[in-house]
Amino acid sequence: MPELPEVETVKRGLAPVMEGARIVDAELRRPDLRFPFPAGFADALRGRTILSLGRRAKYLLIDLDGGDVIISHLGMSGSFRIDAQSGGTTPGDFHVPRGKDPRHDHVVLHLETADGPVRIIYNDPRRFGFMDLARRDTLSGHAFFRDLGEEPTGNALDARYLSTKFRGRSQPLKAALLDQKNIAGLGNIYVCEALWRAHLSPERAAGSLVTATGKPRKELVVLTEAIRAVIDEAIGAGGSTLRDHIRTDGSLGYFQHSFAVYDQEGAVCRTPGCGATIGRIVQAGRSTFYCAACQK
Questions:
Q1: Rg (Cα) of the chain, in Å, rounded?
Q2: How many angstroms separate the CA atoms of 230 and 236, rounded?
Q3: Would 105 be classed as within a structural domain?
Q4: Domain assignment of residue 256, yes or no
Q5: Rounded CA gap, 255 and 38, in Å?
Q6: Which of 11, 48, 56, 58 is catalytic?
Q7: Could you confirm whether 2 is annotated as catalytic?
């Protein structure tokens, strides 16, 4: 599953081409992806102008004139490809080439831009992605978004905010950070990396980072800074590549990124002076990588 940095990078790659463009035609090559397309989806897009591209958690948002928003999720293998007269590109500097098999080109948006006609092609071999259409003025109450917490990239995510979420909680810190009601879009990879940077055990109770009066302890301040830093660096580097997402034909796979602990079981911990090895435990069915020696 792509994490927030992948979606943010895709958004930034598509925006210069799509923003301000007019959708001449919308071509759906099958009736569904993970879910059926909304009734009349293609007709609702034809003739519309794309105002802006945004992101909420791991969802790509495409704002149209008239107040509608296309909600897109990449699932496990989805990608967008730009096909212009000057040549085709896939947004981002992908370590592994994205899927270009036309059998998996399920949605094609035919755009008229200032530089001429462009096709935006959505390719998804596994079809775990999906697209929906909603009104912008009702988006905050949409089932996908109404329970989401603050973004890890926004100024609203600080230690005081997390202290209100963690106070009195005996839940393991790893689980609390993965809870989308606390932080929107923060996934397994970057939780592991942030906890290592903050030298905090994934098994530690979330409430232990908050005082009895509800104030954040210094450790929570450090953790919040680590979360923001690792996400910012991942976006700058282009995200992550996971072995599970790579096929021999290169149809899957995300951006390359160097991890300190994630998927580094048995490697020497990079904390200066530590010398211990990275271990792995399973929490709620998810692999957690950490250093038991320096993460307390």
A1: 21
A2: 10
A3: yes
A4: yes
A5: 31
A6: 58
A7: yes
Two tokens at 202?
């994934």
Query: Does residue 181 have an active-site annotation?
Result: no
Do 37 and 105 touch, CB atoms closer than 8 A? no
For residue 117, what are its two tokens? 């006609």
**Domain with 21 in it: what CATH number?**
3.20.190.10
Asked whether residue 154 is assigned to any structural domain, the reply reads: no
Tell me the per-residue pLDDT of 92-112, one tens digit each, with 9 for 90 and over. Answer: 433 334 457 889 999 999 999
- Rounded to two decimals, the pTM is 0.86
Catalytic residue of the set 2, 91, 152, 216: 2
User: Does 149 map to a domain?
Assistant: no
Q: Which two tokens stand for residue 97?
A: 């080439």
58 is catalytic: yes
The predicted-structure confidence for 169-211, as pLDDT tens digits, reads as follows 999 999 999 999 999 999 999 999 999 999 999 999 999 999 9
